[in-house]
Each structure stands twice: as structure tokens, then as C-alpha cells.
What we know:
The structure holds two protein chains of two kinds.
Chain A lengths: L6 H10 L11 E9 L3 E4 L8 E5 L4 E8 L2 E5 L4 E5 L3 E3 L11 H4 L21 H5 L5 H9 L4 H10 L22
Antiparallel strand pairs in A: 1-4, 1-7, 2-3, 4-5, 5-6
Chain B lengths: L5 H10 L7 H18 L6 H15 L10 E5 L6 E4 L3 E5 H6 L3 H16 L2 H8 L3 H13 L4 H17 L3 H17 L6 H10 L9 H6 L3 H12 L13 H7 L9
Parallel strand pairs in B: 1-3
Antiparallel strand pairs in B: 2-3
Helix pairs in contact in B: 2-7, 2-8, 3-5, 5-9, 5-10, 7-8, 9-12, 10-12
Amino acid sequence: MKPPRFxxxxxxxxxxxxxxxxxxxxxxxxxxxxFTLRETEVRAKPxxxxxxxxxxxxxxxxxxxxxxxxxxxxxxPAFEGWVRMLxxxxxxxxxxxxxxxxxxxxxxxxxxxxxxxxxxxxxxxSEEDLKAAKPSPEQLQKMDGFAMPAAAGVQFAAAGRLSSRxxxxxxxxxxxVKGAK
Amino acid sequence: MRGVGGVDGLVKSVTxxxxxxxxxxxxxxxxxxxxxxxxxxxxxxDGELQRYVNAVGTWVASQSERPDLPWRFGVNDSDHVNAxxxxxxxxxxxxxxINALNSEAELAGVLGHEIAHVTRxxxxxxxxxxxxxxxxxxxxxxxxxxxxxxELVSALVGPTQELYARGLDKSDEFEADRMGVVLAARAxxxxxxxxxxxxxxxxxxxxxxxxxxxxxxxxxPGERLDRLAVAMGPGFDALPDxxxxxxxxxxxxRRLKPLPR
Lengths: 181, 261
């Protein structure tokens, strides 16, 4: 078979596989378990003014099947619907009992090559690596070579259909910080 | 490095004095710190990826109060999950962090957090607190010369190793989270990118070796999400046309090697 040359073709192939780039659709993740952090309104659509479907009490176990912006599509025995993402925590109610490793957490799986099975040959950035570090002017120079002028950043944003907008900083309580952009 | 020349340069260096450190001094210090961080792990050898991360970072940084710093972004060749900022506009994320992310909006949130550390001078102030006299002297000389001397770089090795193993104050991290979300939102991204990245980290067991240094030097992801839930409230839900750009992210990161098998 000829190697596929078009990214679109690759994406299409991946769509056919259970794990692959198709899982990376912004709104789609393989089902994960989580729980509600507080009493949470469930809505038919991922909008604050969408029709309410019901309410989940604090610490209800749910299955998360999609994410979209600040929302998650969750299933519980009682309801299926959208809840605000920050009202849900993935993993176990007692986080000390989380048994998910980093390797399986990124098995969400977007990347070809799939999930690694061992940790042989890990290149770390541990405390020990940091303490053994010697300055590298060559690497800094290399990094300088990839720097981008602000104008190129603007072009890049336009190509990604990103438009800037005024959003004030917020303090810890969520109040807009005065004098900010 | 930008030199400082003429009256304009002088005015700039005076008005940008922060806690006794001018902007050229800050940039020189950051370059010294970066040499040591990059000495621990080199950059990933993938120019397209490095330019992509610089494009996202430069665009997000342009939404900050300090768009004109000489911003530098890099992906280092480490499987561990972490990200670092150094004074004056240097941001380094690990390959493991890129592997944990799913969209440009998540990357923008993570870079926004690091950009906030730079604009608020969190590391600069922490370094100054622990600084020895030779460091301060070498910094002043570097600022005047417009470049980091070998003396400054070597004076920074110890403080850098100590600070980046210990981490900043928790309050600095919470502030950087709030600002990172806002910077990503200003740049047109879905502001929930950073919370999504934190959600991924929150379900990982606390003693996972890939996240050991990140977990040691930051408040736990659950606490960071709790704080963001209060700070973000409902105000970030309805930003029009907030973009994820997942496809562009996956394309730019497609050559990253999977973790070792």
C-alpha cells in the first residue's frame, strides 16, 4: 500500500480506529469517571440559559463523555446532560485513591503510537537533573533562533481565526481587577 | 538581547525599574537562568514545533502588559510534565507537558500561566530574595552591558537550581492561573484550556514520577481548579467564538515521539 500523503486521509484512517487523532476532537473524550464537587444543575445544552434537565447532588459519580468549552456532558443513573466543567472533578472522590498514571491519563489518545507500557529510557526533568545541570549557551542561542516577531504572531492568530478581545483580569473572588485591560 | 541606547532607552530603563532591577537586567538574569534550565534538558530537535510554540506564546504574550519583552518559548526534551518561566520573557515547557495537552487552547492557557509569572516578575523577586551580592553586582554589570556575562550566568546556577526545585509561593501560582486564563481569553481562545489541562493532571495519582517535580513545586491541581472555579465564576462561559484550534495543535505536535515503550 502506498503511504498516505494527505493529512486528511490520515485523520480519516484514525477515525476508524478506537484510539487515535479522532479522539482529539475538542468535544470528544473517551468516557472517564468523575464526581460532582457541589450540587450541580444539569442542562440539555452546554449553555447557562439552556433548559435545565435536573440537579445532581454533591459527590454524585458521573461518566464524562464529552467536553465543550467550560462544559462537560455527563451521565449519571438519574440524568444525562451538560454541567459546568468546574463543578466536576475527574478521578476518585478521594484523590489519594487516584490510580491513574500519567501514561494512562494521556492514553486519551490522540497520538499515533498509542500508550506506552514501560518507563525504560525516560528523559526526565527531575530535581536531580536540575541539580546536575550545567549552563548551555548553545541551547539558549538555539532558542533565540526560534523567536518570533510580534507581527508574525498576529499573522499566526489570523490564520487560526483568533481575534483578540478585552477581558479584564479577575481577583481571587472573581471581581474584575480595576485598571486592567 | 536588546541594547539600551540613547535618551529613549534611558527613559525606558528608568521607568521600567522594578524593585531596583531594570528591564535589561531582568532580561540578562532570565537568560542566565534559561542557560541552566536548558542545560538540564536540551530543546526538542523539531524546528516546526519550536516555531509553533513561539507563535502561540508570542500571540498570547502580546495580550499582556509586557508585549515588548524579548519573548522566547521552547519545548525541552523531557518526558516529565512541567513548564517553567524565567525573568525577562523566557518560557520552557516539557515534551511531556505537550503530550498531556489536547488543543492549542490548552497550550495557550499553560503558556499564559507562565507568561503571567514573567509579567508579574515572580521568579525575579524570588531570586532577588535569595541573591548573593556577587549575583546583584553581576546583574547590574550585565544590564549596563546589555548582555549576560559568564560571571552572571555562573552566579545564577545555584539560585536557579534551588528556586526551580523549591517553587514559588502558592499565591503566585494561583495568581498566574487566573491571569493565564484571562490572557488566553484575550487572545481569542477558549479560556477553559488551562482548567482542562489541570483536569487531566487532577486525575493522576499524586506520586506519579512523571509529575513529581510539578506536584512538589505547585499547589495540587484539585486546589488550583477549586480556586479557578471561584475566580472564573460564570463570566467566562459566554465569550463569543472562543476557539480550541485542536487540529492545528495536533498537526504541529504530530512528530513528537510517543513516550518510551
